[in-house]
Amino acid sequence: MRVLGIDPGLTRCGLGVVEGSVGRPLSMVAVGVVRTPPDLDLALRLCEIERGIEAWLDLHRPDAVAVERVFSQHNVRTVMGTAQASGIALLVAARRGLPVALHTPSEVKAAVSGSGRADKAQVGAMVTRLLRLDAPPKPADAADALALAICHIWRGSAQARIDAAMAATGRTTR
């Protein structure tokens, strides 16, 4: 399975593609960020993010997309920008018919480090270790995007199996 992880942000939108499956070694396909200048009009910034994500989808052809679920922060401006970038990511993936999953920051941290309270450095270190990289990806948004993809490969595929089993019995898990 090939997953595009997206750590949404208006200034830096982290993108990371990971390939692998549960119980098998994971490999990084690509990692990077889409950057937009803060002085650019909001609508144009969102267009830049859309173009960047579209280019990654064209180039890397993922099977699924994992996006960080927007959570409440004290800084309303930051959470609004994150939510807007997240909406673009969801739209672009849905337009292509790709399955999209939302994962909370604590779910991602727990998946890669074993602790939902891990800090950025711990997440970066574990991403480096799990993907057998020479150094943690920079900036942290890029490492977070890879962590999202890893989380989805490990947890998303398990959830899909549970959902399929429940559907076969006529019940749902959500």
Automatic annotation (TrEMBL):
Keyword Metal-binding (UniProt) = yes
Question: Bound how, and how many: what does the cofactor note say?
Answer: Binds 2 Mg(2+) ion per subunit.
Give an example GO cellular component term for this record. Answer: cytoplasm
Q: Which HAMAP family match?
A: RuvC
Key words of the record: Cytoplasm, DNA damage, DNA recombination, DNA repair, DNA-binding, Endonuclease, Hydrolase, Magnesium, Metal-binding, Nuclease
A Pfam family it matches: RuvC
Enzyme Commission code(s) on record: 3.1.21.10
Indicate the residues that form the catalytic site: 7, 68, 141
State where Mg(2+) 1 binds. 7, 141
Q: Where does Mg(2+) 2 bind?
A: 68
- What gene makes this protein? ruvC
Q: Which domain of life is it from?
A: Bacteria
Show the PROSITE patterns listed in the entry: RUVC
> InterPro entries under this entry?
X-over_junc_endoDNase_Mg_BS (IPR020563), X-over_junc_endoDNase_RuvC (IPR002176)
Catalytic class of the enzyme: hydrolase
What does the record give as the reaction this protein catalyses? Endonucleolytic cleavage at a junction such as a reciprocal single-stranded crossover between two homologous DNA duplexes (Holliday junction)
Q: Does the record carry Hydrolase as a key word?
A: yes
Q: Tell me which cofactor or cofactors this protein depends on.
A: Mg(2+)
> What is an example of a GO molecular function annotated in this UniProt entry?
crossover junction DNA endonuclease activity
Its protein name is Crossover junction endodeoxyribonuclease RuvC
Q: Where in the cell is it found?
A: Cytoplasm
Family per record: Belongs to the RuvC family.
Q: What is the lineage of its organism?
A: Bacteria, Bacillati, Actinomycetota, Actinomycetes, Propionibacteriales
Can you state the subunit structure given in the record? Homodimer which binds Holliday junction (HJ) DNA. The HJ becomes 2-fold symmetrical on binding to RuvC with unstacked arms; it has a different conformation from HJ DNA in complex with RuvA. In the full resolvosome a probable DNA-RuvA(4)-RuvB(12)-RuvC(2) complex forms which resolves the HJ.
